[in-house]
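Title: Prediction job returns without error message
Component: structure pipeline
Severity: low
Priority: P3
Assignee: unassigned

Description:
Job completed but the reporter wants confirmation the result is attached to the right record. Sequence as submitted:
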Amino acid sequence: MGYLLPGSSTPTSATPRRTPGPAGWLLLSPLLLWLGLFVVVPTLLLVILSFCSRDPDAPGRVLYAFTLENYVRAFQPTYLKILGSSLLYAFLTAILCLVMGYPVAYFIGRAPEGRRNTLLALVMIPFWTSFLIRTYAWVTILSNQGFLNGILQASGLTSAPVDFMYTPGAVVLGLVYNYLPFMILPIYGSVEKLDQSLIEAAYDLGARPWSALVEVILPLTRPGIVAGFFLVFVPSIAMFAITTLMGGGAVPTVGEVIQKQFTAARHAPFGAALGTLLLLLFFAGLWATKPRREPEPID
């Protein structure tokens, strides 16, 4: 089976895929061991726990008897509404990060090589400080006696403090601020590998800047966009620290529900069931965005 190179009438054989040899598997063994112990095993324990029940006579004790009660409860309207709002906040966060992060990533990826490291360092600076400290900084800025309300009242734009905190907008703001670098870095990796000659060829063929962006640049950087979207979307759904601090309980999310089930409610099986459903949603989204394999041309 072969394919034709552009401008060539001679079929060229595709490069066969090579499977790792013994040395390759040996090099991969530390990573496989790490994934097995700290990803696969905890996930399996979470799934098993989700089919257990809580001992009514001793809250916090788990009865290892198979039941679907936790999943039936998870599909009650109350929890479906919370899950829907969490998905909405995560989706808005990912879209806003994409809209703001793509131009930044493209600028860094197209910048001279000598300046890229400096620009990347600026993107990474927020990681030098704990996200809790950064979130508390936003709480200080947005609170009724905070910096933003002080400016608005001093300038006469408002006569009373504006309630910025404990609103959906505050939650989305906190999520976007903390997860924006996770969108920039994967897209930067795709932009850096972008062949400039393809963009120039599009312009030579009469493409306008918008057409070149939509038909050439975006498709070629799609892997970075998809990776960045999931790196932002998935943790945003289950994040409870930011939503608790900036939502104050007025904006319930599924991450807060899971955290409370494992702590205050002491109902670990139900929290595990909610976590397992989130895991299934992640795999469904990953499958939906997986690029479909194009049929190979016939010789």
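Comment from assignee: result matches the submitted record. DSSP finds 13 helices and four strands in the chain.
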